Amino acid sequence: MPTATSPPTEKKRILLIDDHPIMRQALANVLNQQATLVVCGEASDPQEALAAAERLQPDLALVDLSLRGGDGIELLKDLRVRQPQILTMVLSMHDEALYAERTLRAGARGYVMKQEKMDRLLVAIHRVLAGSIYVSDKVAAHAVQRLAVGGSAAGATPETPKTMDAYVERLTDRELQVFRLIGRGLGTRLIAETLFLSRKTIESHREHIKGKLGLKDGSELIQRAIQWARNAPDSVDL
Predict the structure, then answer these.
(1) Which pTM does this prediction carry?
(2) Roughly what angle, to the nearest 10 degrees, separates helices 173-183 and 218-231?
(3) Do residues 127 and 166 both lie within one domain?
């Protein structure tokens, strides 16, 4: 007698968004070997990514934070508005301690650093596709600690940050973009062109950054930004 067999499981479709072709190829080679995953498309910048997401309707978009002609966090926000049914998660060189919570607020469901082993990435992808959120134990513990401290210190004066990274955490996503670009040596005009914003808007962001970081003038801002970019774990991916 013929035996009943289960219908084959439909593979989950992954859109790769990264401006490094070698990285996309390496990821595609691994993901396409998985029984339940298939790469349905690739993109190297936010415009390509939005168009591909609309055309391909993937189950999951795997997003790098540093993209040619744009920014991964802003792309996450755009995808959440334009294609809310598509799950997103981040794979990036950027330090998770500074960026993981920002990307979750922007709509991502997971965060994995590129230094992790491929097995960890596959676990994260399957967990996100199953409806959960994935971050490292370190990030999860930090988030819990922040909630605990915030809950117990309601109304208290905020503690003065002890490190530059702690100061940088005060910046908004856009201010952090500007700060990173200052650290790369870009002036106001080039930053405005890169982010498709007016020079007046960039100048306003620079003033806000100086206030939040306790800096006296533009020269100190440039010096601190360059120093931070040089020492930041994610500087190689800027």
Answers:
(1) 0.75
(2) 90
(3) no
- Domain range for 80 is 12-137
CATH number for the domain including 219? 1.10.10.10
Name the one residue in this structure whose structure tokens are 């926000």. 77
Q: Is residue 94 one of the residues assigned to a domain?
A: yes
Do 180 and 98 fall into the same domain? Answer: no
Report if residue 5 sits inside a domain. no
- Specify whether 133 is located in the same domain as 16: yes
Q: Are residues 121 and 16 in the same domain?
A: yes
**How buried is 236 (Cβ within 10 angstroms: 0-12 exposed, 13-18 middle, 19+ buried)?**
exposed
pLDDT in tens, the chain (238 residues): 445 555 567 899 999 999 999 999 999 999 999 999 999 999 999 999 999 999 999 999 999 998 887 889 999 999 999 999 999 999 998 888 888 989 999 999 999 999 999 999 999 999 999 999 999 888 887 776 666 665 444 443 444 445 566 678 888 888 988 998 898 888 999 888 888 889 999 999 999 999 988 888 999 999 888 888 777 644 333 3
Q: Which amino acid is at 14?
A: I
- As given in the structure block, the two tokens for residue 159 are 């503690």
One domain, residues 70 and 133: yes
- CA–CA distance, 28 with 25 (Å, rounded to integer): 5
| Count of beta carbons in the 10 Å neighbourhood of residue 217 | 9
Residue spans of alpha helices (H) in the chain = 21-31, 46-56, 72-82, 96-106, 118-129, 137-152, 164-168, 173-183, 188-195, 199-213, 218-231
Pairing relationship of beta strands 70-71 and 66-67 according to DSSP bridges:
antiparallel
Any idea what the Cα angle at residue 146 is, between residues 143 and 152, rounded to 5°?
140
